[in-house]
Specification:
five-stranded mixed beta sheet; 1 helix; 7 strands; binds zinc ion
Length: 104
Amino acid sequence: MNKKFTYKNESFKCQHCGALNEPAKRYIRDHCSDCLHSLHLDVHPGDRASDCGGLMKPIAFKVGGKTDYKILYKCQKCSYKHWNMMLLDDNMQVMEKLNPYYEA
Ligand SMILES: [Zn+2]
Ligand SMILES: [Zn+2]
């Protein structure tokens, strides 16, 4: 990865459901483990370079690799879309209600 790629792994309070999220152990915690919502803060994961700040809503998921799930997010403010890695302690019941994503 390039030099601009820095992690900010910190606890935060979810702006959607209010759950307090602890920092992730394996990867950067940038979305709520309860409702899976995120905020549009990053251009690259963890860099906090975006000044949008809109609520990122999970809209679809796909399996990437053997065990990794990825979630597709859409910003409710600027419609920016991006893929995010699912974490081990994420709420699977919420994820299973999302639409599977099929590549064209
Ligand atoms: Zn939440
Ligand atoms: Zn946005």
